[in-house]
Amino acid sequence: MNSKKIIIIGSGITGMSVGCYLQMNGYQTEIYEKEPKVGGLCTSWKKGGYTFDDGLTWLVGSGERHIFNKFWKELGVIPTIKFEHDEVYAKVYLKDGTEFNLYSNAEKLRDEFIRFAPEDEELINRIYSAIKVISNSNLNLEKSPELFTYEDFQVFKETAGPYMKTVKEWEIKIKDFAQSFKSQFIRENFKRIFWFNPDTYMAYFILTLAWCDMGSCGYPLNSSIELSEAIQRRYEQLGGKVYLKSPVEEIVVDNNQASGIKIKKGEYKQADLVISACDGYTTIYKMLNAKWSIC
């Protein structure tokens, strides 16, 4: 066990994941959370017989084929949580009553585009090909890139080359790419069909549909809070401690080094390192009183 004590502020997915990996590497950690339960934005609640879910739309890596899957296994999410991978990722309803299906399967998605815009088959096949390049990529990322040796980098480069090339090729804004279609239907409805902000790169659309094609973009069958609670259990099994209803009022700094925190009523908690996993504004302007900035 490493003798250093690390305090983490916030028990969202980031805070608890950091805690898990620090515990795995022998550090002693504690998480302080202002709310009565963990999860942060990945949460849900019940009222009047209904479940209100304000968390996950999808989880990248929910299926075996995506590299993130191993991280969710390490964090105790898989196989604890069951995920649904729908045949239709999203259904677009247009004003005239027309339905356009964004299929998870790349072949079906291509056929749906061609059904509405047969004159753009060549362009549609370009989208399809890009999705399949990403979907078929088997990235080798067994360690953090910061720890790569030269040999590790060469192996990663061999497997990631087509992936990175495709992402680079699709760095074109959705609103600009939409004008490449001959189909008036696609041009008029591109904001719904491509659903991202029109100023977003097409690469994001390609990546998301590729993850769907891999069966690795599912949503939890029950609720988002179960995912957060699964990571909490994993963290506590590793020896970490979560303190709920414990809002941090101040990050204490001595000689330009964070030395601990003050929670409600001025109670001081010492630490060798403090990690804030809450929002930047609260961290800088409230907990640090705007005395410190990130360079």
What gyration radius follows from the Cα positions, in whole Å?
A: 23 Å
Percentage of β-strand residues: 15-25%
Note the main sheet.
4 strands, parallel
Please report the distance between the alpha carbons of the first and last residues.
32 Å
- Annotation, overall tally of beta strands: 14
Q: Could you state the order of secondary-structure elements as H and E?
A: EHEEEEHEEEHHHHHHEHEEEEEH
What is the count of helical runs?
A: 10
Overall geometric form = elongated
Helix content bin? 25-40%
> Which spans have pLDDT < 50 for at least 5 consecutive residues?
none
Structural class: alpha/beta
Strand order of the largest sheet: 10-2-1-14
Give the overall pLDDT as a whole number: 92
Give the SSE layout.
Blueprint: E1 5-9, H1 13-24, E2 28-32, E3 44-47, E4 50-53, E5 59-60, H2 69-74, E6 83-84, E7 88-93, E8 99-103, H3 106-116, H4 121-135, H5 150-169, H6 174-177, H7 184-193, H8 202-213, E9 217-220, H9 224-237, E10 241-243, E11 248-254, E12 257-263, E13 268-270, E14 273-276, H10 280-287
Parallel strand pairs: 1-2, 1-14, 2-10
Antiparallel strand pairs: 3-4, 5-9, 6-9, 7-8, 11-12, 12-13
Notes on the structure:
The protein is α/β, with parallel strands linked by helices. 38% of the residues lie in helices and 21% in strands. It has ten helices and 14 strands.
Give structural attributes:
single chain, 295 residues, alpha/beta, 10 helices, 38% helix
How is this structure best summarized?
The protein contains ten helices and 14 strands. By secondary structure, it is an alpha/beta fold. Strands 10-2-1-14 form a four-stranded parallel β-sheet, with helices on one face.
